[in-house]
């Protein structure tokens, strides 16, 4: 790590509403890790929530925490067990460290690892800083045609890829997606790329629906408008809104799939009779596993455009503005570029 400095700048959340820019030691890559000079980090709703509330459910910010888990960069150093030829590679970071030895990890469902360490989830730091380490195989190479921002947004794209896999989207699928935030919009593009011929997106925001029409949706509908009964092969909720979930379920054909991505109420009313009579499959999703190669190929081949989602860019001194940028009308995705 010849040219890498010993110290770096970092943005740290001390507690609710309290964010500072400070300095830390640049981390040293462990045996199986690489050191990445961070290029771009997308802001997610969960980052904003940690800033405005100091916690998400049981995860409470109790020590200085770097937020940001949608990150890209360049490998600048490697641990002793990693091939030095990786230095210089542009990578998209898969921001999780599973244990690799438990039952879930061994069967490939590593997103369900009980010992998962996930970026920007207390006490695990995220990427609003100049350098991060990650296990070598979770730093995924991206081709030159993929921008730094797009490489960072492979993370929300992975949520969409995982949701579409769970929904069994295939050629000719008819898909209903509730919510046209970044996740719903990305999922609409993924559904199209997976071969869906009908992708209906609903939202309460006309501005977001207009965006959905331009990028992925074959049709949009204002939330609350009646949906065709038993018409869709799959319904993916990316809103977390109970009315959207309850309206979406009867729109699914017998044998169809319901995938709950959005986080909302802990409990909700379900039409059990309909689930039974139509033999509907209903599942939640927890992030993703084994999605990065697909996500990168979808973007590199031009099937999916992530750059269109980026509405504003910020530096490390402007993380607070970046975290609150989502509130501005027309905003979709803010990114932080630490070296900006
Ligand atoms: P977002 O808040 O930007 O998007 C939610 C959208 O839903 C908004 O555009 C909102 O206007 C819309 N909405 C509200 N009520 C609606 C209704 N009744 N019908 C249709 N749309 C409605 O959030 P996002 O970043 O796009 O993320 C979407 C959801 O996915 C969030 O709840 C987020 O926490 C969740 N999420 C889950 C996972 C997971 O692993 N399960 C991963 C990432 C994000
Ligand atoms: Zn595990």
Describe this structure in words.
The chain is of the alpha/beta class and 340 residues long. The chain contains ten helices and 19 strands. The protein has two domains: 178 residues, Medium-chain alcohol dehydrogenases, catalytic domain (Quinone Oxidoreductase, Chain A, domain 1), CATH 3.90.180.10; 126 residues, Rossmann fold (3-Layer(aba) Sandwich), CATH 3.40.50.720. The strands form five sheets. Strands 3, 6, 7, 10, 11, 18 and 19 form a seven-stranded mixed β-sheet that branches. Strands 14-13-12-15-16-17 form a six-stranded parallel β-sheet. The chain has a two-stranded antiparallel ribbon with strand order 1-2. Helix 7 links the parallel strand 15 and strand 16. Helix 4 packs across helix 5 and helix 4 packs across helix 9. The two termini are 22 Å apart. Bound molecules: nicotinamide-adenine-dinucleotide and zinc ion (ZN). Nicotinamide-adenine-dinucleotide binds next to helix 5, strand 13 and helix 7. The site of nicotinamide-adenine-dinucleotide has 27 residues, from helix 5, strand 13 and helix 7.
Main sheet attributes: strand count, strand direction, barrel closure: 7 strands, mixed
Helix content: 10-25%
Order of helices and strands: EEEHEEEEEHEEEHHEHEHEEHEHEHEHE
- Helix-and-strand structural type: alpha/beta
| CATH C-level name of the largest domain | Alpha Beta
Rg result: 20 Å
- The CATH architecture name of the largest domain reads Alpha-Beta Complex
The structural domain count equals 2
